Glycoside hydrolase family 65 protein
Amino acid sequence: MKNDIDNNSAIAAEPWRIREDALEPARAFLHETLFTLGNGWIGMRGTPDEGTTGGAGQTLEGTYLNGFHDTESIRYPENAYGLARVNEFMLNVPNAKRVAAVVDGERFALDTGRVLAWERTLDFRTGLLVRTVEWETSTGKRLRIASRRLVALSRKHVAAIEYAVTPLNFSGTVRIVADVDADVTNLQAGDDPRVGSALTGPSLVEVAREVGAQDVLLLQKTRHSGFTLATATASVPSAASAVRVEPVALGQAFEADVAQGATFTVHKYVAYASSRDMRDAAAGPHARAEVAAARDAGFVALAAEQAAYLARFWIDADVAIAGDDALQQGVRFNQFHLLQSVGRDGRTNIAAKGVTGEGYEGHYFWDTEIYVFPFFLYSRPEIARALLQYRYNGLPKARERARQMAHDKGALYPWRTIAGEECSAYFPAGTAQYHINADVAYSIRLYLLATSDFDFMAEQGAEIVLETARIWTGIGSYDRKGRFCINEVTGPDEYTALVNNNYYTNAMARMHMTFAADVAERLRSERPADYARVAHAIGLDDAEIRAWRAASAAMFLPYDDDLGIHEQDDSFLSKKVWDFANTPKENYPLLLHYHPLVIYRHQVCKQADVVLALLLLSKEFSLDDKRRDFEFYERVTTHDSSLSSCIFSIVASEIGDKQKAYAYFMETARLDLDNTHANTQYGVHTAAMAGTWLGVAYGFAGMRLDEAGLRFAPTLPAQWTGYRFKVQVRGALLDVAIDATGTDYRLLRGDQLNFAHAGTPVALDAQRAHIRMENQQ
Ligand code: BGC
């Protein structure tokens, strides 16, 4: 990292937007991430319309399409059978949003002339990135350039820019160049495993280009994965009749004589289409048609559509916190970015960094199922379903992977992937995390509990759950004492690898196998034809279902009687405790300063592991268990992973440690806005963003949903005066508003909902749609 980079953001605390009011090149890299616009498919970093200035490491001109990737071989100087062979990585695609003002041959850029005033805002209700700048050319001509940008939430392929130039102290010729920058490449990875890819050189190879009076169509191909990308733009100047047009390499230059105080505007419409979604030959026409439709609608209508989309989103999703603006901003910022990042088409998912940067190469992890999924499940269940559909579509690849891993049946999901290949080149912290299978099953179980959508189970869910459950009987075995053991796996904690009987994995595998047996039996009795179809397709017989029940019943769950805690694995407690007292602050995260073996030899956790099991399998533990486990593992956890603090916050809430619950929550809620992990420039942390929602709903409001039903146990952090959120459960929309003394529950939609408040049963229906309950202290 260069010294002139400032890792702290400079964003004013406002509840519904982020705003900067000065141009600070040192913060550009970071702020570009924060100001990213996205729609679940397209992601455009918040770089200036005119393009970035500044070297690598100071800025990143990034445009991404969720799931649009190339592949590269993974080469191992020391090879071994079954290692991941192919890396899939998200490509940086042409920058089609580029528009720039030129006066007297001088092109506006952040490092030419003088910037006299600058403001940039991203508003969570309008979904617009608005930038206003006053610029003085080197000959003293002053201009105001106001731009508004959107990536259409209701049109997967579309983005639009309004670029308005006003001469402030002169009348004369203003030129606006609207073109496509196809000369883009991916960020180079250094030593940090969390940064970019190994790609060098241009990302895409040009196939054809057409440049018209207002239009551009660029066709390109990926180098290895064989996808076609079509990038189309249409640029429309205001007062078109008085404007001179000149084609440039991949765009147009528009020139007009503009009087002082008058404004010359160009609207630019952009569409991307790729052969991941359609036939090769269809991508070009599709991008063209999308651009034409956007141009016909016009910027104002697109902006109105955007605001309407977001209004609906916030009605269902908003978490309001009274008494802390900075926190409120953090919470909404996180929700907004989750919406911008999540794939909704069943072929894409949500990357660890969303569509905001190249960290983790656009890969999807278990972060989706365990962290992000509940947020969408309870606010946009159809998006949650699309995420599960993605896993269904990944079954063929997961079956192949299982065969490579010597499982004669079943499916093993990749630890990290885009299109289903296992892309983890470091198997101890990758492929070894077999818990991914149980994490997927867990989210399906939660989906079923929250929606009662058994159609989904019959169509797709059951097949996923059954195929993935088979892996446990494949890798597990009974020891001499008749205990079912799972050896040589890595749990969630990546500072401990390749262990026997990781508690989390065993407990989740038990849940998974029990659920699989339940699903099989329910499907057989309620939908025999579907059962017959699935059982036939995967060759499932009754003996297997009995084997799951038996293995679940005999599952070994390590527990240390002396300490009264659940052991993270067979060997964890016999290791030396990490010397925290003598580890300098700058040596965190440990993964950047110590060889993995050094870390693995110690009792030290990167993130919640047993503590995560306490949350996910809540009713399997007594409150005392939870207290002891929390206290023990807290002492040895560094929270070097951004997935950790939110889980500690929730469990702290449950065991009644309000101070810790709040402190851990605060670490999560503004993690990206305050760049506390010092790597937000490479992309936001979507799991932690969703962890913020979990911290409110599961943590402070004590929400749980399991076979026993839906329940809340609300508490109010001393720092707030109240908070409010909504959940959708089985078609009902419930508004939960907590203040110092009680909780108001309102049924906003749906006929009926039963739940418990601090142990007391509550039933709401159309006649009795509101109830106020007292909070337990
Ligand atoms: C964490 C994993 C996580 C990954 C992607 C790692 O640092 O340890 O649990 O899946 O980041 O977010």
User: Anything to note?
Assistant: DSSP finds 18 helices and 34 strands in the chain. The pocket of beta-D-glucopyranose is lined by residues 352, 360, 365-367, 492, 494, 606-607, 641, 643, 687 (CB under 6 Å).
